[in-house]
Design goal:
single chain; mainly alpha; 52% helix
C-alpha cells in the first residue's frame, strides 16, 4: 500500500514552487486530517506535491521520508 507513495516521494518535489499555482479544487477535496499520524502526513504531502505546486513537502518531513524509506 505505502510503497507506491514512497516511490513517488522523490519524484513529486516540484522544481518550481509557485504560490499562484494553487490547485484550489484539490485542496477542497483533500483536507489534511485532524491530528494526522506520521504516515497520514507523508501520504497527504506526497499526494499534494503530485497535484499542486503551491508548496513543497516540508523539509523535516522529507528528511523523515528519506530516512524511513531509503531509495
Amino acid at each position: 500500500m505505502f510503497d507506491n507513495y514512497i516511490k513517488l516521494a522523490s519524484r513529486c518535489k516540484p522544481a518550481i514552487i509557485d504560490p499562484m499555482k494553487i490547485n484550489a479544487e484539490w485542496h477542497k477535496k483533500n483536507k489534511m486530517p485532524k491530528n494526522p499520524t506520521e504516515e497520514q502526513r507523508i501520504k497527504w504531502h506526497i499526494a499534494h506535491a503530485k497535484n499542486c505546486a503551491c508548496w513543497p513537502i516540508p523539509k523535516k518531513l522529507q528528511e523523515i521520508i528519506d530516512k524511513k524509506y531509503p531509495s
